[in-house]
Amino acid sequence: MILHFRSKALLILLMCCNVSIIFAEEKKTWLEDVENLRWAVDLSIKGIYNAETGHLSHSEAIGLDLHKVFTTDDGGNIGTLILQGYFTKLNNAERYPSFFKNASDVKFICRICNFNVVVLDQGQLNVRAGHFEIPFGLEHNLDTNGTLRQYSNGRDLGNKLDWGVALNGKFAWGGYEVAISRGHGVDWKSGHDTFIGSGRVELMGDYHSFLGLSAFHGRIKSKSGYINRTRIGLDAGTQFTFFSILAEVSLGKDDNIEKIHSLLEFDLQDNTEKFLGYVQLKDSSRHIKGQSWDSIRQISVGTRYTPNRFWVLSGQWTHDFEVFDGAKRASVLAVQLRYRF
Description:
- By secondary structure, the chain is mainly β.
- The protein has a single domain (5-340), classed as Porin, CATH 2.40.160.10.
- Helices cover 7% and strands 60% of the residues.
- The protein has helices spanning 5-23, 153-157, and strands spanning 37-50, 55-71, 77-91, 106-120, 125-133, 161-171, 174-181, 195-206, 209-222, 225-240, 243-254, 257-269, 275-287, 294-305, 311-322, 331-340.
- Strand 2 and strand 3 (77-91) form a beta hairpin.
- The longest helix has 19 residues, at 5-23.
- The radius of gyration is 21 Å and the shape is globular.
């Protein structure tokens, strides 16, 4: 009998927990070892209004976010377990990811669900298995899952998350992560001839700056068939007191279509770290053989207010200056309220 997807997802979560408990100390359960366990229930509601079309939609999510570090008797690290399981409900969505069936779908999503096992001391080599962010670009360092503030992986690579295995490590000069994954994205599926190979190497200039080099190659399933997608990316960031600049650019091909994506962000944070404001300039360009370059250019202006560790209020306005030929221009206002306890 074929299990329903939600049952599969819950089964995967239970399996991850059981595997992790095996590595825990014999005289302690993972809940008793509270020193290395962090967890929170995450509730959020998001409203979206497109001023160009007058379309209004909203979505809600409820999930469990768990982070657990397993150690030996002498204090050495065995590995880190991360589980982020969320139920998300769309309501009259105008645009939505392909893993949702329709504009008012409800779906269980295992956002980040993996176990990162320590192989060499001091974090020089680890093996990550499960569902993780594809190591590419700014997203690898700056987790934007479930937030309004997003970077380029979703719109550029198509797959922001995937099931697979990765090698990763950190050094004084920076770090690396190299992954091979199934190419299915959010869901665990069988029967598709897909895959993704990806990796990112980061150089740290100092505590306030970094430079990343990424690569991506995969065979991805789309609505019209399969796409052979290749990208090379460069990302960087630097901070001056409370002001930061972040940038990323990638170039490559989807089959024979040339693609270039870029993003530039300026953000400002106050000295209490409660307020964050940012401006993003985004460009996605494509070139089909025999035709001229076609582009979509956008600006996003956003803010985030975090009065305490429980509440987060965010707002973002995204406006299309230029769109692909045949596409509709959008000017979208989004507001999100999150509560974690």
